[in-house]
């Protein structure tokens, strides 16, 4: 059975809401960390999200791949930018990263930017 990144990100979002209710200070801190890391600076938002996707691929995190591909699509990533980022993932991580790079392509296609 093939995984759906829409289902994965939806399910994780629901679970994160439960964590937010149980430990709001922790989630607030994580949110601030995210905002700080993604804030405007020397790197544009698109590059920051490509880096985040690369880390998600390297960590073999399906939810990370889904959330960051959605953000990249929102930011107007091109297929070429995505593929070049995934090429670096494969170069740095070999076969296991290749398998998750393929998952990132599936997420990109599933979220409708192909």
From TrEMBL:
Domain of life: Bacteria
InterPro entries found in the cross-reference section: AhpD-like, AhpD_core, CMD-like
Location of the Carboxymuconolactone decarboxylase-like domain: 24-106
NCBIfam families: ahpD_dom (TIGR00778)
Stated name of the protein: Carboxymuconolactone decarboxylase family protein
